[in-house]
Amino acid sequence: MGFLNKLFGKGTKTGQGTEAEAKVEQVITGAKSGAKVEQVTSTKEPEDNLSYRTEEELIERFGGIAFDKQCDFATVIGNNNWNIDMSKEEISFGPNLDFPMQVLGTFSHSSETWLWAWANTKSGLSEHITQQSLQLKKYGEDQEIDLLSSSSFDFSKDELHRIGLIASGMFDASAYYIADYGQGAMLVTIKSDLVDHQRQDDHLRVLSVFPQLISQFEMNHKIALQWYLEEKGYKISDEGAQLIATKGGDRITAEFDELSRLTNLNG
């Protein structure tokens, strides 16, 4: 997870750090407000009606496009420190970079445990800011996915990216962010036109993003790439051991072995 952690995993502590179970208002301090972006937080469910019954299937479905969005988000926030204002339900990265957020949950570094926002009864969080975590809970219960439905469990901080990618893709968020405050970390998603308008359509990004994604997570490479390319607007021809994707004058060719593992990716 080194690449993800390097780009997106750390912020600078701006409040008094506590354990994940502690009151969230004591963790984060208010930020000075800058010019506001559109205050929209997406909580929509997946646009398709398919059911994904495992963590792996969810990463296959949403991992590529969510990872892709993280690159745009990193460009927008640069190396700026983060700050969270719970009263405004915003995370900021300096002047004019204030984004509405959804809190998914918190991670304790000392106990290495994850606690979903919907299960954190001591946090005082409003139901509005935890809507996505509640929807993920229901989805996990319906599909019997323990990652989404169990309130708390032992965890590695690297696994925060798994939840971040799933939530970002499922709810069409602009990005997710891991706000590390020293003793723990809060995982949030954000939705902002400012970030969305940064979206890069360079097809060469696929050649960079996808190999990094499959190096971090277990998945069916062929299925994951097909979903990613469809999200990017490509027309795809499935020729068994090969996928050919075209959009405008751009062309991407992917080759796979008998286990659907990527062996070659060209564009």
Structure description:
With 267 residues, the protein is α+β, with helices and mostly antiparallel strands. It is built from 8 helices and 11 strands. Strands 1, 2, 3, 4, 5, 6 and 7 form a 7-stranded antiparallel β-sheet that branches. It is globular, with a radius of gyration of 18 Å. The two termini are 25 Å apart. The model is unreliable at 6-44 (pLDDT under 50).
How many helices? The count is 8
Distance between the termini: 25 Å
User: What does the main sheet amount to?
Assistant: 7 strands, antiparallel
Low-confidence stretches: 6-44
The share of residues in extended strands comes to 15-25%
Number of strands: 11
Shape: globular
- Sheet/helix structural class: alpha+beta
Helix content: 25-40%
Rounded to an integer in angstroms, the radius of gyration calculated over CA atoms is 18 Å
Topology pattern, helix = H, strand = E: HHEEEEHHEHEEHHHEEEE
pLDDT averaged over residues:
83
Brief descriptors of the model:
4-stranded antiparallel β-sheet, alpha+beta, 267 residues, globular, 7-stranded antiparallel β-sheet, 22% strand, 11 strands
Draw up the topology in text.
Elements: H1 2-8, H2 55-77, E1 83-85, E2 90-92, E3 98-108, E4 113-116, H3 131-143, H4 146-149, E5 152-154, H5 160-170, E6 175-180, E7 184-190, H6 193-196, H7 204-216, H8 221-231, E8 235-238, E9 242-247, E10 250-256, E11 262-266
Antiparallel strand pairs: 1-2, 2-3, 3-4, 3-7, 4-5, 6-7, 8-9, 9-10, 10-11
Helix pairs in contact: 2-5, 2-7, 2-8
